[in-house]
Amino acid sequence: MSTILLNVNGIEVIYNHVILVLKGVSLRVPEGGVVALLGGNGAGKTTTLRAVSNLLAGERGEVTKGSIELRGERIEKLSTADMVQRGVVQVMEGRHCFAHLTIEENLMTGAYTRKDGKGAVNATLEKVYNYFPRLKTRRTSQAAYTSGGEQQMCAIGRALMANPKMVLLDEPSMGLAPQIVEEVFEIVKDLNTKEKTTFLLAEQNTNMALRYSDYGYILENGRIVMDGEAKSLRENEDVKEFYLGMGGGDRKSFRDVKSYKRRKRWLS
Predict the structure, then answer these.
(1) d(CA 187, CA 224)
(2) Going along the chain, which residue ranges are E strands?
(3) pTM over 0.70
(4) Which helix (H) or strand (E) holds 258?
(5) Minimal CA–CA distance to 97: which of 108, 85, 83?
(6) How far apart, in whole angstroms, are the C-alpha atoms of residue 40 and residue 219?
(7) CA distance 152 to 262
(8) Beta strand 88-91 with 166-170: parallel, antiparallel or unpaired?
């Protein structure tokens, strides 16, 4: 049985004291696992990640109910810096790199919290270049003049420079060509297998995310409407219809269909 690294239990998140965005979201991330948070735009995926990494305050959001535990410790009141020290690092949606810095300078900014010496930091840098050989060839290029795929790799690489135990990855496939998306996900799988890095990834590309994760949660309108092993979600008829683009006809809400089916079963 895997140890639970992250336990999100029934959280509600409100923005500006009035807008309820998450409505009782619960999920668990086992140590060394890859867990996908799936759903369309506006489902609440980014808000969930921000609740975990304590980035909500900057968006005038707060967790108003429920609890978030990392290795059994309540973390809602910790700062983002405290979270990094505990080994949790978020890679923001939209490939945030420092445009005027080189790729290598960008990567090194990820190591500023490290206290284990220059030698250890350089060893991590070499490891990052090993996983992202493309970054090594572009190490002296200004980030502004690199491709979208290289910037996404740089953003993930920078997170790895902090030596994290868990990476929160927000929409890694956004705006990237399909073969680059595949490359990024292959590296995530590689890091998980070889470095035992735990990943919680928010992703609209359900097909890709379920191929590379162990477990998935589907969010709709701030609620989790379904969860399960990635393989069983991939084979689930409702998931195929709603999220893998394999169904025909008008698309209603996944949740409506599920509750309709539940009612139908109950009545029959």
Answers:
(1) 28
(2) 4-15, 19-30, 34-38, 61-70, 73-74, 88-91, 166-170, 198-203, 215-220, 223-229
(3) yes
(4) helix 254-267
(5) 108
(6) 8
(7) 41
(8) parallel
**Distance of alpha carbon 185 from alpha carbon 166, whole angstroms:** 16
Tens digits of per-residue pLDDT, 107-162? 999 998 888 889 999 999 999 999 999 999 999 999 999 998 899 999 999 999 99
| pLDDT at residue number 257 | 55
Is 70 exceeded by the pLDDT of residue 184?
Answer: yes
- Measure the CA–CA gap between 143 and 47, rounded to whole angstroms: 27
Closest CA to 73 of 61, 85, 89: 85
What the block records as the tokens of 253 is 């809400």
| Phi, psi of 198, deg, nearest 5 | -85, 140
**In 110-253, alpha helices (H):** 118-131, 133-137, 148-160, 178-195, 206-212, 230-235, 237-243
In degrees to the nearest 10, what's the CA dihedral of 74, 189, 193, 140? -90
Closest alpha carbon to 58 in 113, 95, 107, 16: 16
Residue 258 pLDDT: 55
Angle at 80 between CA 226 and CA 195, to 5 degrees: 65
Query: How many C-beta atoms lie closer than 10 Å to residue 184's C-beta?
Result: 21
Cα-flanking dihedrals φ and ψ of residue 4, to 5°?
-80, 120
Residue 265 has pLDDT above 50, yes or no: no
pLDDT band at 264 (very low <50, low <70, confident <90, very high): very low
Query: Residue 167, CB half-sphere, CA atoms under 13 Å: how many?
Result: 29
The closest of 227, 228, 224 to 22, measured between CA atoms, is: 224
